[in-house]
Design brief:
0% strand; Hemerythrin-like domain-containing protein; binds fe (ii) ion; mainly alpha; 141 residues; Hemerythrin-like
Length: 141
């Protein structure tokens, strides 16, 4: 998911919005399955949600770190620092996903795992907002 879309603010914003709204929908669906006690379906949905974070969000992060950040920062020291911080956000998302990978087989989609899934949504939303503000000069709200 590299290419010119990352460099265009509008297209990049659309990638962020699409990935986030899909994650929110799938997380809410998973929570309902758990509440209804549908454990087999919940387990499947949790695996799919985990796969969604890897393919839609972590792969986007990987693509950004494979040249896009470097290109946007150039020789500007403020932007170079911004890119270090944004990369750390990616690392935190990766660590939470790794924790979910470890916990899911043990407990299935239990409340502890839901807490991790919701933390991904919050951190990713803040990260995307900051990324757009810092790299595209967007001062939203
Ligand atoms: Fe990012
Ligand atoms: Fe991004």
């Amino acid at each position: 998911m590299g290419g010119p879309a990352l460099r265009q603010h509008h297209a990049h914003h659309a990638i962020h919005e699409g990935a986030l709204s899909g994650a929110i929908d799938k997380t809410e669906e998973l929570e309902i399955l758990i509440q209804e006690g549908k454990s087999a379906e919940a387990r499947l949905a949790a695996d799919q949600l985990l796969g969604y974070w890897v393919t839609r969000v972590l792969s986007h992060a990987d693509a950004e770190e494979e040249g896009f950040y470097e290109e946007m920062a150039g020789e500007n020291p403020d932007l170079r620092l911004a890119v270090v911080k944004l990369t750390r956000d990616h690392d935190i998302l990766r660590m939470i996903v790794a924790d979910i990978v470890n916990e899911l087989p043990k407990d299935g989609p239990a409340p502890d795992v839901m807490r991790l899934f919701y933390s991904l949504i919050t951190i990713n939303a803040i990260h995307s907002r900051e990324e757009e503000r810092l790299l595209f000069g967007e001062h939203s709200e």
